[in-house]
């Protein structure tokens, strides 16, 4: 449904109320969010890649929502405004399960959460990756290929080595860390070659921003923001759980997920966590956040030291 103005969107979506109550609901690099009638969340893409992502959301989520162990957005409105996609769905209940709120959960609540998240990720990963590709979901084994404004081309090994080269060329980079990262990358590439895993449909960011829960019950109420869907290695969907809720909790989710050898998956997550810190450092260097880059280099130093037997 092409539209030339927001008024066209509201008339098409709410024909009986063409002037709904609308309020801003946040804005990022990719999308602008508006809350309509205190019930409907509309996401409007800000650039072509975000538009492609929302088009994929509209195609894929209806196929996942029906028997999902956790509620996910049920897209009911989808169209294009000035050539860029938008989607609209009923808001899910709950609030973001931040690391601080997670820490306040009782042990039984954490265990229940681990089971629900394991079941949800298993449901997502059971989706046929060939069907996902047919629906336009891209594929990459590099864990950070889906950027805010582009999908990085190249093989995983090529992109990892680009990261290493960028870090090595930073004037403040410590040579010992460059060597340590080279060693860890070589170990990781040997691991992935020795244990080829089938690629799966990934959420891409199962994180504190996107896991919702009920503050009074402590129970998860939904998963949001599927804009970064990609087909890739399954361990990738546990990365933010590992970094934000802790390795022990991620291990329990993986155990209940049950589709990967636990030891191998945790070893992969340790590497992905390390490389995520490097990716954040490179972002900080690119945009001139010198103090933050130095802090992240300190984190790399600690993580590499922990990896030494």
TrEMBL record:
Q: Superkingdom of this entry's organism?
A: Bacteria
Every Aminoglycoside phosphotransferase domain range: 45-271
Q: What's the short name of a Pfam family annotated to this entry? A: APH
Any GO MF annotation of the entry: transferase activity
Keywords from UniProt, A to Z, are: Transferase
Could you tell me what this protein is called? Answer: Aminoglycoside phosphotransferase family protein
